[in-house]
Amino acid sequence: MTMKEPPSHGTLLSCMPVAVMAVVTGVDVVAGPGVGLLPLVSLGPAFSGLVGGWRRTAVIGVVALLLCVGLGLYNGLFEESRGFAALGSVAGVTGVGIAAAVMRSRRETELAGVRSIAEVAQRVLLRPVPLTAGPLRVAVSYTSAVAEARIGGDLYEVVASPHGVRVIVGDVQGKGLAAVETAAVVLGAFREAAHDEPDLVGLGERLERSVARELEGEKFVTAILAEFGSDHEVVFVNYGHPDPMRVRRDGTADFPQPPSYALPLGLGAPGSDGPKPYPVSFAPGEQLLLYTDGVTEARDDQGAFYPLADRAHLLKDPDPHSALIALREDVVRHAAGPPHDDAAMLLLRYHGHGMGKSAPAD
User: Fold this and answer.
1) How confident is the model at residue 145 (pLDDT cuts 50, 70, 90)?
2) Angstrom distance (rounded) from CA 330 to CA 335
3) What is the mean pLDDT of the segment spanning 180-209?
4) Which of 122, 175, 274, 353 could cross-link to 150 by cystine, CB 3.0-4.6 Å?
5) Which of 26-40, 98-112, 134-148, 301-315 has the lowest mean pLDDT?
6) Helices 43-51 and 81-125, interaxial angle, to 10°?
7) Does residue 87 surpass a pLDDT of 80?
8) What pLDDT shows up at residue 73?
9) What is the pLDDT of residues 46-80, one digit of tens each?
10) DSSP letter at 350?
11) DSSP string covering 266-299, please?
12) Are the CB atoms for 60 and 48 separated by under 8 Å?
């Protein structure tokens, strides 16, 4: 036997106008004219204007007027001014309710249009990453700190180039439209240069020039570039970004660090030493998680940062997308509230190999 689902808040609100008028009518009939409940019939069209369309509000208003006339005649209120005052009150509230319903409908239409544009912008800026790229399986998670927003200042991309699979994860300083515009510049430059530049250093220089043309003052973008070749290693270039997390086949995690960090994109001084690429072993059965600081800087009620290294076991699910969902939900539980910063995570695995100890190695 299946249990019936409880009524939703929308259903309860839609029934409220009729219920209010029914209660007022019943009490008025029982109590008589001395109680003076007749003007409360106007609550029906008032509630309807908040939750229903203008046509429904008009119908509720007509019903309220008919009830007002009927109750007024039943109680003999039209022999004095009370009946006409109540009738005017219901008519006035009905008119205001219809106007409110029309305005709300227009705002909802505008909001739907804005959301539609945001979804298109998301598909253009942060387009879906491929499920597989070369030897890799890929999963991504993105959470914006701005309410109702789909995109923000964090960025990611995976490109299968002639030089190997190339990946970027970055974080634009700041939030809002300015951060989105900068993220678009970085992603556009990366998607083009990833196919052309023979090494990550040249790719990073292209990004640096693109960002330097767009950013003003002390704005910057932290980023990490990764290149996966044919051998079992990945090469990183780190522009002041959080270190990647490598999860080994036994479930332990480490954070490979570069010999020296480069300045974030946009802060590189002319003539300064460029970033140093560094290789990291990455064998079948291992995982790599690239992320932004919105993950590791998520705080709980006591102000403690999210312990990412202690949560590596959450990535044990054979399906990378399910594993990343489990990690994202744990971050949300840890934060215990709305996010204060954008949070992006990109999980990379060799496909065709298990994640446990028994996974065969090449």
Assistant:
1) low
2) 9
3) 90
4) 122
5) 26-40
6) 10
7) no
8) 77
9) 777 777 788 888 888 888 888 778 777 767 766 67
10) E
11) T-PPTTS-----EEEE--TT-EEEEE-HHHHT-B
12) yes
Specify the amino acid at residue 186.
Answer: V
> Can you tell me whether residue 259 is helix, strand or coil?
coil
State the amino acid at position 213 in one-letter form.
R
**Is residue 134 within 8 Å of residue 164, measured between CB atoms?**
yes
Which tokens is 101 given? 């319903």
Cβ-count burial 301-326 (b if 16+ within 10 Å, e if not):
eeeeebebeebbebbeeeebeebbee
**Which residue's structure tokens are 């990453």?**
129
User: Got the DSSP string for 128-148?
Assistant: PPPSEETTEEEEEEEE-SSTT
The beta-strand segments (E) located in the chain are 132-133, 136-143, 154-161, 164-172, 221-228, 233-239, 245-247, 253-254, 278-281, 287-291, 343-350
Identity (one letter) of the amino acid at 64? A
pLDDT band at residue 16 under the 50/70/90 scheme? confident
Sheet holding 233-239, edge to edge: 154-161, 164-172, 221-228, 233-239, 278-281
